[in-house]
Amino acid sequence: MVSTPPVDAHSWAEIDLAAVQHNFRRARHYAPDSRLCAVIKANAYGHGVEPIARALSNELRGGDCFAVATLAEARRVYQALGLRDILILRGPVNAAELTEILATGFMWVMHSPWQAELLKAELAKGMVFQPLRIWVKTNTGMNRLGMSPQAFAEIWPWLKNLPQQKSLTLMSHFATADEPDKPLAAEQLQNFYALADSVTLDPQTDGMSLSASAGILAWPSAQFSMCRPGIMLYGASPMVGEHGPAFGLQPVMNLKSRLVTINEVAAGDSIGYGATYHCQQDMRVGIIGIGYGDGYPRHAPSGTPVLIHAAGKVYEAPLAGRVSMDMLTVDLTGIPAVPGDEVLLWGQGWGSQLPAERIADLCQTIAYELFCQVTSRVKFIYQ
């Protein structure tokens, strides 16, 4: 991918739409017998939901769909693409939202008995809705969203016996699929099987969904009829200690800036706020035009790498000192850089990669957060 940096941007994110399509196909490769629900919540994990959704829509097959967190997000995708095959993962938060969801024909998650009561009230009005498309979320061990087995035992038969045309999906969510050595995921899988066995599932109309990205990669026995790839679509690995390329994934967001200037700093002098970094020798220090005001993590420690394209080659340079709102400082020892040279903060460029997971590990966070916190000051370029 060849890019031309915008002359008016101090920092920019190149979004590789071919890469997100490639990653969707990798999800299909790992779960060949499942339909796919592409998760594009939180503005497509910070990548821009409209262009990401358009790119992925070209990859969808019959029975595939999108997933978002809220009705507002579903509206945004519907307005961009005109598609109704959108799952609202949080479901309706009140009766007004449920009325709109039913009228529009979106799929939605029923995770609590009070939502079943909302549906009863809506159906009692006698209005004719499009087919009900409900994913019933159960708590198999994560203890977040999901109804209890006791509530499920009452609500699923009630839904099955409704006279309306409908499709139902039994769903849950892994808590530790990204760490296969922990026993909880296996316990959740058994709990999920037990819930399925406790009711009558119609294979023609009823679905089952447990696996998101980590389940797709590490739990083939838990893929069922529908899988929900999320972070893997954006090129990052969901697995603890692994990077996306290990699974054939390609970075989608390539976050870049450029060197603003270069300073000569004497041995013994300090750099940046708090004077936390002290030069052990005379140093060339590069100032990069990106900071936490752009979404780069303020808590990135000294030593966190960036890639600099200088004199036709790619060099790795470590952060030297605290991240500022608008700038980073890096050690340019041995790097023939000049002001204006481009810098990669994470992603890929010039034939080299700097996985977001590597930066996230150093910052004691996850790539999901890095992607989602990039701010509007960064110019997005879709390619």
From TrEMBL:
- GO CC term, one of those recorded: cytosol
* Keyword Isomerase appears in the UniProt entry: yes
**Modification type N6-(pyridoxal phosphate)lysine: residues:** 41
Q: Which UniProt keywords apply?
A: Isomerase, Pyridoxal phosphate
Q: What is its EC number?
A: 5.1.1.1
Q: Which InterPro entries match?
A: Ala_racemase, Ala_racemase/Decarboxylase_C, Ala_racemase_C, Ala_racemase_N, Ala_racemase_pyridoxalP-BS, PLP-binding_barrel
For this entry, list what GO says about its biological process: D-alanine biosynthetic process
What catalytic reaction does the record list?
Answer: L-alanine = D-alanine
SMART domains linked to this entry? Ala_racemase_C
One MF annotation (Gene Ontology) recorded for this entry = pyridoxal phosphate binding
Cofactor(s) needed for function: pyridoxal 5'-phosphate
Task: Write down the Gene3D superfamilies for this protein, in alphabetical order.
Answer: Alanine racemase, Lyase, Ornithine Decarboxylase, Chain A, domain 1
The Alanine racemase C-terminal domain is annotated at 252-383
Instruction: Give the protein's biological function.
Output: Catalyzes the interconversion of L-alanine and D-alanine. May also act on other amino acids.
| Family recorded in the similarity comment | Belongs to the alanine racemase family.
| Entry protein name | Alanine racemase
Q: Which species is this record about?
A: Pseudohongiella acticola
